Amino acid sequence: MFRLAIFNLKDIIKYLFCLVSVMVIIYVANRYFFSHKSEEKLIDIAKVLEKQATALIDTQYPQIKEVKSKAEQNIISHESTEEMEDDLKQNFLISLINTQLGIAEADLDNHEYEENVASNLDEENKNDKNISTDNENSTSGNTENIKTDVETNVVTKNPLSDAYTDLYGNVKIKNETSYSLSDDILNPAGLSINTKDILIFHTHTCESYTSSESYPYTPTGSYRTTDLNYSVARVGDELENCLKSYGFNVRHNKTYHDYPAYTGSYNRSLATVQNLLNENGCDIIIDLHRDAIGSRPDYAPTVKIGDEYAAQIMFVMGSNGGGLYHPNWSSNLKFAVKLQQVSNEMYPGLFKPIILRNSRYNQHLGKAACIIEVGSTGNTLDQTLVSMKYLAAIFQKAFPNS
C-alpha cells in the first residue's frame, strides 16, 4: 500500500513556467553580472532564487520542511540532512511522474544511475575481493562461552532520550510515519524467510568510532576512516565470524560506498547489493552502520552485560511512506521485532527502540532487510565488537534451526 500526491495539468504547467522563468533569470543574470564582474550581486540573486525554489518545494512536499526542522534540533540520527532531503525530493518527483503517467507501482529509482555505477565498478570490486571469507583481521568469533544468564544494565554516561510511540509486547518503536502499527504489521508469527543465509554490507563503509588503546587510528574525516580495520567494516567482520560459529552462511561485502563521495551512497550500495543478490539470493540483508547523531564525542550508548561493556544497537527500518515502491517493509519490520523480542529477553537494554521512517533505505531488496546501527561516535571499537557476539547469540536463539 502506498500513497501518491495528486497533481492536475494546471499545476504542472505552473511549475514548468516557474522553472523556465528561473532558468531565464539565471541566464540573464549570468550574462550581465559576469560581464560586469559583479559576483556579489550574482550571489545575492542566486540566494533569492534558492529561497523561492525551496519555498515552492516545501509547500508541495512538507516532509522536507519537517526534516530540516528536526535537523536544527539535532535529533536526527544516521542520515545527514542532505541525504534525507534528496530522498524526499526524489519521492516528490516520482509521485508526480507516477500520477500523470499511471505507473503506480513502477520502481523509478535511478535505474540509469545504478546501471552506470554497476558498469563502472573497479576491478577489485568486480572480482569480489571485498567479500570476505576468512578475515585475517577479525577475531576468532568464538561464541562457545557466551553467557546468557547475566545481569544487563544500560550505563550510558550522557544519554539521549529514547522516546518511543508504540509498545508491542516488550519492543519499543519510534514510529515516524503516518501508519498505524497494527498487529498485522508487527506480529512476527507469520514471518516466512530464509534464515540460513545472511548478507552484510555497509552503505557508509568509512564510519568509525572513538580511538582507543586497543584500536588507535588516524581519522580521515570526522569519525571516519578508509582503513577497514578500524571502520564499521571491522564490526561487520566480527558479526560475520560470530554468526558463522553458529552455522549461518554469511557473506560480508566491504565495498566503499561513501568514499570518495558521501552523497549518493545509497545509490551505490543499491547497485552493489543487487549484483550480489543476482549471484545468490538472500532474505536477511543487513546494512551495518554506526549511529551519527550529531557526531557527538560525549555520546556513547553503552550497556553492561555481566562484566563487559557493549555498544547499544538500534534498528532503523524503512517504509513506503515516502511514495517509493517497497512491498517488503512490513516483513522487514516483523523481522526486526522478532530479533528485538529475543534480545529484550536475553539482554534487556542492548537494543534501543526501533525507528520506523518514511525513507526506504534500499530495504525493498529483501524480506528481512534492515539497517543495524552499532554504537555511536563516542563508543570505542572494543565495545562494538563485544556487541556483535551478543547479537550473534540473539540470532541463534531467534532462528535456532538455521
Note the overall shape. globular
Structural class: alpha/beta
What percent of the residues sit in helical stretches (DSSP H or I)? 40-55%
Order of helices and strands, N to C? Answer: HHHHHHEEEEHEHEHEEEEHEEH
Tally of separate helices: 11
Write a concise synopsis of the structure shown.
This protein is an alpha/beta fold.
Structural account:
The chain has a 9-stranded mixed beta sheet. A 3-stranded antiparallel beta sheet has the order 2-8-9. With 402 residues, the chain is α/β, with parallel strands linked by helices. The chain has 2 domains: 9-106, no CATH class; 115-398, Zn-dependent exopeptidases (Aminopeptidase, 3-Layer(aba) Sandwich), CATH 3.40.630.40. The radius of gyration is 23 Å and the shape is globular. The chain starts with 8 loop residues before the first helix and ends with a helix. Helix content is 41%, strand content 13%. The chain has helices spanning 9-35, 39-60, 62-72, 81-101, 111-119, 123-126, 183-186, 232-245, 265-279, 329-346, 381-398, and strands at residues 131-132, 152-154, 166-168, 171-175, 197-201, 249-253, 284-289, 302-305, 308-311, 313-317, 354-356, 368-374. α1 packs antiparallel against α2 (39-60), α2 packs across α3 and α10 (329-346) crosses α11 (381-398). Mean pLDDT is 79; it is low at 1-7, 33-37, 71-76, 95-129 and 132-138.
